[in-house]
Amino acid sequence: MSLLEAKRLEKHYGDHVVLERLDFRVDAGEFVTLVGASGCGKTTFLKMLLGTERISRGSLTLDERPIPDEPGPDRGVVFQKYSVFPHLTVLGNVMIAEELRQSRWLGKSFGAARRHARDKAMARIREVGLSDALGKYPHELSGGMQQRLAIAQALMMRPRILLLDEPFGALDPGIRQDMHELILRLWQDQQLTIFMITHDLKEAFALGTRLWVFDKLRHDPQAPQAYGATITYDLPIAQRQPPQDLKASLAERGLKTLTQETLL
Amino acid sequence: MKRLINLAPSRGGRWMLGLLPFLIIALVYLSLSNARLAENPNDRLLPAPATMANTFFSMATEENQRTGQVVLWADTFASLERLLLGVAISALIGLFVGLANGGLPLVRAKFSPLVTVISLIPPMAILPILFIAFGTGEAAKIALIVIGVTPFLIRDLQGHALRLPDEQLIKAQTLGGNSWQVLIRVLLPQLTPRLLNATRLALGTAWLFLIAAEAIAAQEGLGYRIFLVRRYLSMDVILPYVAWITFLAFLLDQALARISRWAFPWYHAEEGDNP
To answer: What is the ipTM, given to two decimal places?
Structure first.
């Protein structure tokens, strides 16, 4: 039984077809990296998983149940930015997940419940290496630390799938390397299932166990909106380097600039 | 020679430059006042600073023979009570309606057009209605402030709530938050500092409505006094009262600013207005 399954999944905005012919199965524990040209529907796809975009046709199931059309605790998310709450400290940002579970009406815990939430949050914060910054507000943290915080926050819920929308896109190369190590470690330790959008093909190969390339297979010059993008390549990643023939065939399609930027 | 846009005064120089316009205004007033007083020592239009100081001092210390009250303090307390009550009620309504409007699309669809229309009604135009409905007591004056200030606060807070990144609302939902929890743990804490700052801006409007309402019907109050002594051309009362009102407004503004900075440092870091 696979964790996530799509059958003939499509997304339209009126006449504009964004995504079409999506068929896949993803098992628990896979790390799927999504690449593709800008505006090809990667983020739309992630939003369908998240539940903020409706499915136009076909089916998308998580644990054999249709994905609800609003976000929920079974699907964690880290965005490129704005993922953390600016009015809460590092500890508060992570604790809030447990507090929302404990207290339906106040969303805030006190006494023993609060200590429990604190201990739980501390464990997550230690995993991402932010133990020294407990009392700091997000605006006092660097970009990399904010993303670490967002990851710790998302992992509090033990989500069935973790969605990452270019989480390291705004970070410096050195910090990115640290973040790669962190996310790989968490993925292995906690048996996560991860979907990650990236613009960096190298990153996609370095992190994923499976690479999806989003692109349009059909193109009508008279009606550019008539056909949508789909998963044109679904590669299991065994080695940590993109094979030569993939580079060549990606270069043939519209992804030329992308591959040149990141690989050559 | 540096470009003009790159020339900034030093710290001391900034004080001097800031004081200069005040000094010039004071000098102009003094020379005009002296010229008029030289022509007619009983001139009431531009009283000498000493006259104003004497009048103000006696109003602040001597009891009124008829009422037994010290006029300045009675006026100040009456006005501040009306102002603060009006602003506090506005802030509470503004926060709750702004929160509901900003956070719940179904509520917003119902109330947003209404708030927009109400905010366009000139409050002074319905002052007669208020006097008819509430009588000429305190209620009408407070109601005028509330009607004048609340729509602005609601619109400002609603706008701010809508400008908060969607990512935060989505994140809260993925952390298991229900609608109510998202409202009180994500939106409310972020609207509170915004409310303080919107209230600061609204204080000027609140003073305007307060003085206007007092000018028309009151027994005491800063605005009432100014409009009362206007009949006797008592500029020696009016000018110090205006200065006193300005000073009170300044204190209130600074108090709100300090509270906001102290309680919500993250808000000011985000807005980029560090001291």
So the answer is: 0.86
